[in-house]
């Protein structure tokens, strides 16, 4: 049986407790239940300004809470409860002492330390007279797997009224500074068809791998663009990430495919990003096939769009976001990679990433987070949430 979570306790201890509840994607029921019960207990114990004006709901393995105090602005604190599969790194292990304490384990970086910060702040500020912004807490499942399963996407359909605010903060690991916006991402699979033959009589065949040569040449010569948006520099990237061909060591392959990933700056919408990628690869006049559709058998090139997600502009000009930047001492950089800030941006809510942990350690077997960063982010956000705009 899972021990009860104390949301008002030291956020470092809370992060340890969350890590100890294994929650790989699609297996979040236990942690969602523990978080829901803990938030219910907090609401039941409210006696100050938040009493009767704070609510908690659970939707599957998604848990939401909010204050309804009529404050001038609303801040959304959002994080995912799931992790990548456990790799012999649960329960949490602690090393060091004093200011050098480090938490080791699955989710310490991505992103149970961020969840702990948000839960602790909600629990300790919900009925505080110091609270300057109404709060919405959104904790959801299935972020680490295919986008169609993402719990935030589910909430857009089932509880859209909860996803409103003046700014959203995603607790993704950022090393304790603000990472604004996010890159867009798309993947194209380039199919090549040829004619199979014995390699001793290669002139009787048509090598499908060789048909990919112009695409690979274009990739090798590609010059990535950097663009400055609101003081954040986003660098694009177009890379071959996976390929497959051949059936035997003595056979000219008649089929080959190449996956290409384009990470676009957020000033390109999805259509512009796709148009740019196709042009850079020399595929603008190459026939397209739909996902799951078999390319024609005759020799030639074909392309298929396998993934497409828009980026998100930094949105730092919004008043609530600008206040957050000031609270962070102006420490802001562009977010490299795609996160759910894009979903909030699509809903018209400026969003940033801000959480403890080095993003370069996410998903690693030796994932670890300094306790000092958890404390630092907690203090930063407490100052922001209790300072009127």
In short:
By secondary structure, this protein is an alpha+beta fold. The protein contains 10 helices and 19 strands.
Descriptive account of the structure:
It is a single chain. The protein is an alpha+beta fold and 389 residues long. The chain contains ten helices and 19 strands. It has helices at 11-19, 29-44, 112-125, 151-158, 208-211, 213-221, 270-281, 319-327, 341-346, 371-385, and strands at residues 54-59, 62-67, 74-80, 93-95, 102-104, 134-140, 167-170, 178-180, 184-193, 197-198, 226-229, 232-235, 237-245, 251-252, 255-264, 300-309, 332-334, 351-353, 368-370. An eight-stranded mixed sheet has the order 1-2-6-3-7-18-8-17, sandwiched between helices. α1 (11-19) crosses α3 and α3 packs parallel to α10. The radius of gyration is 24 Å and the shape is elongated. The two termini are 43 Å apart.
Low-confidence region ranges? none
In round numbers, the mean pLDDT is: 95
Overall, the morphology is elongated
Radius of gyration: 24 Å
Say how many strands there are: 19
Strand line-up of the largest beta sheet: 1-2-6-3-7-18-8-17
What share of residues is helical? Answer: 25-40%
Class based on secondary structure composition and strand pairing: alpha+beta
Please outline the helices and strands:
Layout: H1 11-19, H2 29-44, E1 54-59, E2 62-67, E3 74-80, E4 93-95, E5 102-104, H3 112-125, E6 134-140, H4 151-158, E7 167-170, E8 178-180, E9 184-193, E10 197-198, H5 208-211, H6 213-221, E11 226-229, E12 232-235, E13 237-245, E14 251-252, E15 255-264, H7 270-281, E16 300-309, H8 319-327, E17 332-334, H9 341-346, E18 351-353, E19 368-370, H10 371-385
Parallel strand pairs: 3-6, 3-7, 7-18, 8-17
Antiparallel strand pairs: 1-2, 2-6, 4-5, 5-19, 8-18, 9-15, 9-16, 10-14, 11-12, 13-15
């Amino acid at each position: 049986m899972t021990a009860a979570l104390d949301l008002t306790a030291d956020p470092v201890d809370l992060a340890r407790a969350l890590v100890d509840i294994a929650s790989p994607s699609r297996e979040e029921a236990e942690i969602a239940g523990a978080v829901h019960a803990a938030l219910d207990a907090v609401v039941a114990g409210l006696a100050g300004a938040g009493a009767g004006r704070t609510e908690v709901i659970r939707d599957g393995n998604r848990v939401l809470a909010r204050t309804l105090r009529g404050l001038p602005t609303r801040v959304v604190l959002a994080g995912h409860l799931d992790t990548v599969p456990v790799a012999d790194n649960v329960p949490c292990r602690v090393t060091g002492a004093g200011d050098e304490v480090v938490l080791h384990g699955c989710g310490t970086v991505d992103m149970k330390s961020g969840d702990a910060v948000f839960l602790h702040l909600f629990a300790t500020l919900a009925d505080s007279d110091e609270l300057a912004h109404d709060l919405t807490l959104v904790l959801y499942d299935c972020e680490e797997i295919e986008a169609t399963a993402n719990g935030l996407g589910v909430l857009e359909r089932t509880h859209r009224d909860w996803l409103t605010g003046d700014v959203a903060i995603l607790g993704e690991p950022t090393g304790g500074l603000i990472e604004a916006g996010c890159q867009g991402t798309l993947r194209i699979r380039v199919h090549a068809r040829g004619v199979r033959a014995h390699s001793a009589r290669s002139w009787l065949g048509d090598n499908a791998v060789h048909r990919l040569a112009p695409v690979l040449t274009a990739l090798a010569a590609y010059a990535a663009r950097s663009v400055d948006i609101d003081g954040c520099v986003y660098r694009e990237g177009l890379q071959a990430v996976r390929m497959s061909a051949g059936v035997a060591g003595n056979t000219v392959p008649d089929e080959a495919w190449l996956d290409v990933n384009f990470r676009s700056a957020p000033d390109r919408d999805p259509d512009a990003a796709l148009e740019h990628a196709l042009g850079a690869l020399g595929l603008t006049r190459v026939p397209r096939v739909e996902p799951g559709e078999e390319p024609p058998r005759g020799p030639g090139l074909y392309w298929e769009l396998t993934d497409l997600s828009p980026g998100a502009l930094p949105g730092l000009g919004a008043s609530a976001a600008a206040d957050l930047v000031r609270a962070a001492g102006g420490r802001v950089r562009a977010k490299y990679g795609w996160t759910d800030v894009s979903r909030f941006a699509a809903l018209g809510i400026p969003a940033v990433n801000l959480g403890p942990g080095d993003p370069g350690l996410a998903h690693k077997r030796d994932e670890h987070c300094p306790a000092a960063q958890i404390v630092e982010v907690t203090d930063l956000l407490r100052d922001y949430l209790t300072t009127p705009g």
